[in-house]
Amino acid sequence: MFNPRPLRILLVEDHLSTRTALSIWLSDLGHEVEAVETKAAALSFAKKFTFDMLITDIGLPDGDGRDLLGKLRESHDFHAVAVTGNTGTAESELSRKAGFTQHLEKPVDLDALTEILGTAASRLVD
User: Fold this and answer.
1) Is the whole model's pTM more than 0.70, yes or no?
2) How far is it, in rounded angstroms, from Cα 126 to Cα 124?
3) 26 is in which domain, residue-wise?
4) Domain-embedded: residue 1
5) For residue 37, which phi and psi values (nearest 5 degrees)?
6) Using a CB cutoff of 8 Å and minimum separation of 24, what contacts does 63-71 make?
7) Does residue 58 come out as left (phi exceeding 0), alpha (psi in the -120 to 50 range) or beta?
8) pLDDT in tens, 56-86
9) pLDDT class for 1, splitting at 50, 70, 90?
10) CA Rg, the chain, in Å?
């Protein structure tokens, strides 16, 4: 996969094993990853840094990933991917209505995520 530059990714996942595995995998692909476990940590990070992509779990210990997306959209422009253990078209539709570009069910299909990363990277202008 050719990237104009590595994506700056904010990964929000409360499950330690999933957060660690995705963070390592994304880093191994050459991307810059900030991995946090809560909505509050994501909002704190976003006050100081910009990012190209948000990958967030929907169910977080201190809130909802869809609400997080809305708050981050107030001051940032980025590609957004929802990740959840909740299945079904209704869940996917809720994510799309909230503004997510993609909705992935757990366990995450790494091939699908790789394609999403490539699409997002190809849209970078700098």
Assistant:
1) yes
2) 6
3) 8-122
4) no
5) -110, -10
6) 63/38, 63/39, 64/39, 65/12, 65/39, 66/94, 66/95, 66/98, 66/100, 67/39, 68/12, 68/39, 68/42, 68/43, 69/98, 69/99, 69/100, 70/98, 70/99, 71/43
7) alpha
8) 999 999 999 999 999 999 999 999 999 999 8
9) very low
10) 13
DSSP 123: T
Give the position of tokens 């366990």: 107
Contact 84, 59 (CB under 8 A): yes
Looking up residue 98, the CATH number of its domain turns out to be 3.40.50.2300
Residue 87 lies in a domain: yes
Residue 102, C-beta contacts closer than 8 angstroms, at least 6 positions apart? 80, 81, 82, 112, 116
Structure tokens at 33: 């990853």
89-98 vs 65-73: helix axis angle to the nearest 10?
Answer: 20
